[in-house]
Design goal:
The protein is an alpha+beta fold and about 425 residues long. The chain is built from four helices and 14 strands. InterPro entries: Bact_OuterMem_StrucFunc, OMP/PagP_B-barrel, OMP_bac, OmpA-like, OmpA-like_sf, Thrombospondin_3-like_rpt, TSP_type-3_rpt.
């Protein structure tokens, strides 16, 4: 009964420590060897079986059991059985030897409970061992140690003695269970310098995403994973330093403008120099796809220098159409106010000029010869002036662009009235530009 209580006590301690530890790293060891005792039995065979649990890089907890089989004259008989709760101090803890060393020395020791023939009691053990990893889960081990026995008088007639043992064993250790790996990258959290790596990203031995070109941008975020580049450009190089990655830069050796795929624009007109047919365009001028200033009306003056950019005009008039400073008089038949074909042709020319130059305004003045009374001729000259005005309005000229419509009768002749030729010139409507 006492044996069951003691073993249960040791197992409970091991389970408690397991529950209080974040990582689940377990191993089982099985081995055998020989022992030497200071009793009259002398030497014998010994078996070893243990469970161990990883606590930290320096310590493992071990629940170990040894069975000693005494070498008697008849056969090997059970000499002792002892169970220990040991701490194993690993010298491959990163301070003395590297954790992944091919040879991993350790020291161990702890309290135990021994059954030695007809006696039992508390004892202890201590020793030195070496592990030789074969894989991440399997290792061979060899160790030598001391097992403290019990004092007694019954078993030996010569008096009191202490049944202690020296042992040498070897065997195999198999680890099981898994270390916590929150980001599932294959590197345990305790060794992972980057514990939140996205799923599926390749990592190095430290658990950090691989950065092939060493530019500080991991490969899974690096648009140029084999060329060292800038973090701001997703790991891509920028030889000319213009803020455009070489892979996107049409002019990678010359600093340029991001909007033009890294190409320069000397005159700032929005057209790259390599495509600009007019590379010296003044600042602010509107340009076409070739980088040349726009001339909307095609009169040879660019819009920014054209006072009338939508109307063709000579350069000497700043791109505006020339207004007809003087127009031919409209001539009428005797005692008539009806427009003659020649008069209508002249008015059509005036209409075209006024449409080409929206700023042009005119005045109309009616006249008559001296045949007839002054009052009659005044009405006749009024009718002639109003006929010319109505023609302009009927053909799309806004009334407000006809500044003045006046009539003078026979009072302002331009030729002598004593001949028919002179009177014909006086039967007229004069057209003047309103300034």
């Amino acid at each position: 009964m006492k044996r069951i209580i003691v073993l249960s006590f040791f197992l409970c301690i091991g389970m408690m420590l397991h529950a209080q530890t974040a990582e689940k790293k377990w191993a089982v060891g099985l081995g055998g060897g020989a022992y030497y005792g200071n009793s009259k039995e002398g030497t014998g065979l010994i078996t070893e079986f243990y469970f161990s649990r990883y606590l930290n890089p320096s310590f493992d907890l071990m629940l170990l059991n040894n069975f000693g089989l005494a070498n008697t004259e008849v056969t090997n008989t059970l000499d002792f059985s002892s169970t220990f709760l040991n701490l194993r101090y690993k010298l491959n803890n990163g301070y003395i030897f590297q954790e992944e060393s091919k040879v991993q020395p350790y020291l161990y020791g702890g309290p135990g409970y021994i059954f030695d023939n007809s006696t039992e009691g508390v004892n202890w053990d201590a020793g030195l061992g070496f592990k030789f990893p074969l894989s991440s889960s399997v290792a061979l081990f060899v160790e030598g140690g001391f097992v403290e026995g019990l004092r007694g008088e019954k078993a030996v007639e010569e008096g009191t003695y202490t049944e202690s043992f020296w042992k040498g064993v070897g065997g195999i250790e198999i680890s099981f269970g898994g270390s916590k790996d929150a980001d599932m990258d294959g590197v345990p959290d305790r060794k992972d310098d980057c514990p939140n790596t996205p799923e599926g990203v390749a990592v190095d031995a430290r658990g950090c995403p691989i950065d092939t070109d060493g530019d500080g941008v991991p490969d899974y975020k690096d648009d140029c994973p084999t060329e060292a580049g800038e973090i701001a450009l997703d790991g891509c190089p920028d030889r000319d330093g213009d803020g455009v990655a070489d892979k996107d830069d049409d002019c990678p050796d010359t600093p340029g403008v991001k909007a033009l795929k890294g190409c320069p624009d000397s005159d700032g007109d929005g057209v790259a120099d390599k495509d600009d047919k007019c590379p010296d365009t003044p600042q602010g001028y509107k340009v076409d796809s070739k980088g040349c200033p726009i001339d909307s009306d095609g009169d040879g003056l660019v819009d920014e220098e054209d006072d009338c950019p939508t109307q063709a005009g000579p350069v000497e008039n700043k791109g505006c159409p020339l207004s007809k400073a003087e127009f031919d008089n409209l001539l009428f038949d005797f005692d008539k106010s009806t427009l003659k074909p020649a008069a209508m042709e002249e008015l059509n020319s005036l209409i075209e000029a006024m449409k080409e130059n929206p700023e042009l305004r005119v005045s109309l003045y009616g006249h008559a010869d001296e045949i007839g009374t002054a009052a009659y001729n005044m009405k006749l000259s009024e009718a002639r002036a109003k006929a010319a005005r109505q023609y302009l309005v009927d053909h799309g000229i806004a009334p407000e662009r006809i500044a003045t419509v006046q009539w003078y009768g026979l009072s302002k002749p331009i030729a002598p009235n004593d001949t028919e030729a002179g009177r014909a010139k006086n039967r007229r409507v004069e057209i003047k530009e309103d300034k």
